[in-house]
Design goal:
mainly alpha, Triphosphoribosyl-dephospho-CoA protein, two-stranded antiparallel sheet, 16 helices, 2% strand, globular
Length: 291
C-alpha cells in the first residue's frame, strides 16, 4: 500500500508549519517574533504555496530540480520577495517524491521503504535538475558559503554543468563538507532519519512545541549551522553550537529564550538547522507521528 499524494502533501505542509511555529527556536522567525525584513506571515504563505508542488512530487509529476524551481516560483504569486523555505524545499521535495512511491509495509508501526526510495530518487538526479537548482537558488536569493568550483553565484556555471554532465547529486557531493543540506543529499538523508526518531521520542515526552525546540537545540549543538558559517564564519557557528548545548539542558526553555534574544540582536539565524528539522518532521509524520 502506498501513501496518497494528498496525504504526502499534507504531511509536508504540517511539518513546515510545526517547525515554523515552535518557540523559542533561537535565532529564527517563529510565532513570537518576526525579522525586520521577513515576517512569520511570510513563512506561512510560503508553506501554503508549496502544497501543489508537494502533491505533484508525490504523483511523480516532474523532476526534482524542476519541482524545487516551481516551489520557489510559487512565492512570486503571493508577492514574497525574500527567501523563506528554500532549504526546506531542497530537502523535502525528494522526500515527497520518495513517499509517493514508497510502500507502507505495516501501517501500525510505520514500517516502509521510504529511505530506499529516497536513495533511488537522489541517484536519478540529472544535469537538468542541477540547472534548475541553480535557477531556483538565484531566484530565491539564498545564501551559501563561497566555493571555487561550480559556484552558485557564477553565471557561467550552467554552461559548465552541461559541458561536464554534472548532476544535482554530483553538486551536492561537492558541497557536503560545508553545507548541511548538501550533506543530507550525499548521505541519503541519514541524519534527517535519525532526527525523525529523536523528534518522535521528544514529542512523546514533552509535546510538539517543546519536543521540536529541544530537538532543534540538540541538532544545532551536534553540528554547527552552515548558514551561520556562510554569514559569520565557522568560529561563530561553533560558539552558537556550544550555547545551544547549554540551552537544551534547561527543561523550562528559559535559556533558549535568552539565546533567542541574543541571536536576534546579532541577526544570527541557524536557518539550515531549521530546514533539517522540517525535513525530519516530514519523515516522522509520514511514519505516523501523532500528538
Amino acid at each position: 500500500m502506498s501513501m496518497s499524494p494528498d496525504y504526502v502533501a499534507q504531511c509536508a505542509e504540517l511539518a513546515m508549519l510545526l517547525e515554523l511555529s515552535s518557540s523559542p527556536k533561537p535565532g529564527n522567525v517563529d510565532r513570537c517574533h518576526d525579522f525586520s525584513e521577513i515576517k512569520f506571515s511570510d513563512f506561512l504563505v510560503s508553506a501554503v504555496s508549496a502544497f501543489p508542488v508537494f502533491r505533484q512530487a508525490a504523483q511523480n509529476q516532474g523532476r526534482v530540480g524542476s519541482l524545487i524551481l516551481h516551489g520557489v516560483q510559487a512565492w512570486g504569486k503571493w508577492k514574497l520577495q525574500s527567501n523563506t523555505h528554500f532549504g526546506s524545499l531542497v530537502l523535502m521535495i525528494p522526500l515527497a517524491c520518495a513517499a509517493g512511491a514508497a510502500e507502507v509495509r505495516n501501517p501500525e508501526d510505520g514500517a516502509d521503504d521510504l529511505q530506499d526510495e529516497l536513495a533511488r530518487i537522489l541517484q536519478l538526479s540529472s544535469v537538468e535538475d542541477a540547472v534548475d537548482f541553480y535557477r531556483a537558488f538565484l531566484l530565491a536569493g539564498a545564501r551559501v558559503a563561497d566555493v571555487d568550483e561550480f559556484s552558485l553565484k557564477d553565471p557561467n556555471s550552467e554552461l559548465r554543468l552541461r559541458q561536464e554532465g554534472r548532476t544535482l547529486l554530483d553538486l551536492m557531493k561537492l558541497s557536503q563538507g560545508h553545507d548541511l543540506i548538501a550533506r543530507e543529499w550525499s548521505t541519503n538523508f541519514e541524519r534527517s532519519f535519525r532526527l525523525a526518531d529523536r523528534l518522535k521520542e521528544r514529542i512523546g515526552e514533552r509535546g510538539p512545541n517543546d519536543g521540536i525546540v529541544l530537538t532543534f537545540l540538540e541538532a544545532l549543538h551536534q553540528v554547527p549551522d552552515s548558514l551561520i558559517c556562510a554569514k559569520f564564519g565557522c568560529e561563530k557557528a561553533a560558539q552558537v553550537s556550544v550555547r545551544a548545548g547549554e540551552a537544551m539542558r534547561d527543561e523550562n526553555l528559559e535559556a533558549a529564550r535568552i539565546l533567542d534574544r541574543e541571536l536576534l540582536a546579532e541577526d544570527i539565524n541557524p536557518g539550515s538547522t531549521a530546514d533539517l528539522i522540517a525535513a525530519s518532521l516530514f519523515i516522522s509524520l509520514l511514519r505516523g507521528l501523532r500528538f
